[in-house]
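testing teh design pipeline on a random one, pls ignore if ur not involved
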């Protein structure tokens, strides 16, 4: 019954998503609960959500000796919906002009790419957008954002390598006001090996923005990489306590990772989820919806058949 699980589990975590999609067996009884539990952990549902799903499966098994794969998916979906209640962020953010969206998160999670995707998203929704390149730590980050700005025909306030990120944020905010932009998107650095400096740097960016406009309520969105799994919870805890988060974006949900950690992060902090990233192109950004997210985790159709 669990031959796929056995075959795939050796190749570890990055196959978790496939594993979860493909390997939930067709029929589950009391004996197979442990395997389901392993699958849920491999899909990054973690200690926050896995026991709840398992608890519901056990309750259901009191009435039916055997559950079908669809029943398991329905139970898991129900638990996820329950845990994600209220997670869908509204895009009607305050009436300030310019709106400021500050993207923060660890190195490599997808902040710069997401800044470009958001610029594209808002631009095609008819908004005037400007980017601010506050990752002055890596010279390449500025080049990367500049090249997106050019491709997307979006204004950008660039930085000199090594310059003060808060000064760039200030200039970008002033430019956004002067050019009557609707939305300013700030990309930031993410190096974690000097964590305290990073936190101080991000706090300074927010302080300086307040100096530019004391009424400003910036959107501070944490970018989470779905391939990082349950560690996202710790990372979100640090960013939330140090900086104060107002939104979440999960990237790389197109890849082979599981993406279940998003539920754990939401369950713990109740920070609204704005978008999910589904690829490397500017178009690969979807507004977060609980339905679509669950659909991504458990696509319909019997993929097990495809495996033969
Ligand atoms: N497949 C996939 N790759 C992504 C996604 N978002 C970002 N990436 C890739 O992840 C890598 C790191 O992204 P980057 O934006 O530079 O991360 P940053 O260090 O947080 O700014 C790049 O190769 C991106 O193309 C996504 O949603 N899906
Ligand atoms: Mg970057």
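output:
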């Amino acid at each position: 019954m669990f031959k796929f699980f056995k075959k795939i589990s050796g190749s570890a975590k990055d196959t978790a998503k496939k594993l979860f999609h493909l390997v939930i067996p067709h029929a589950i009884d009391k004996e197979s609960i442990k395997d389901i539990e392993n699958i849920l952990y491999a899909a990054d549902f973690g200690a926050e959500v896995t026991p709840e799903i398992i608890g519901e499966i056990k309750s259901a098994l009191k009435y039916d000796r055997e559950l079908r794969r669809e029943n398991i998916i329905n139970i898991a979906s129900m638990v996820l919906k329950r845990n994600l209640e209220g997670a869908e962020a509204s895009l009607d953010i305050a009436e300030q002009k310019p709106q400021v969206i500050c993207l923060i998160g660890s190195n490599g999670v997808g902040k710069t790419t997401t800044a470009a995707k958001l610029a594209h998203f808002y631009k095609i929704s008819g908004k005037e957008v400007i980017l601010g390149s506050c990752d002055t730590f890596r010279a390449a980050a500025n080049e990367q954002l500049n090249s997106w700005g050019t491709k997307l025909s979006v204004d950008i306030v660039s930085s000199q390598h090594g310059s003060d990120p808060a000064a760039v944020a200030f200039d970008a905010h002033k430019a956004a006001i002067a050019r009557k932009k609707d939305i300013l998107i700030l990309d930031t650095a993410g190096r974690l090996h000097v964590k305290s400096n990073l936190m101080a740097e991000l706090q300074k960016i927010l302080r300086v923005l307040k100096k530019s406009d004391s009424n400003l309520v910036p959107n501070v969105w944490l970018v989470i990489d779905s391939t990082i799994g349950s560690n996202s919870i710790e990372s979100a805890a640090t960013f939330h306590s140090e900086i104060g988060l107002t939104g979440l974006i999960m990237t790389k949900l197109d890849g082979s990772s599981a993406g279940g950690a998003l539920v754990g992060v939401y369950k713990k902090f109740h920070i609204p989820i704005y978008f999910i990233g589904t690829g490397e192109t500017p178009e690969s950004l979807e507004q977060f919806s609980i339905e679509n997210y669950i659909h991504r985790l458990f696509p319909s159709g019997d993929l097990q058949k495809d495996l033969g």
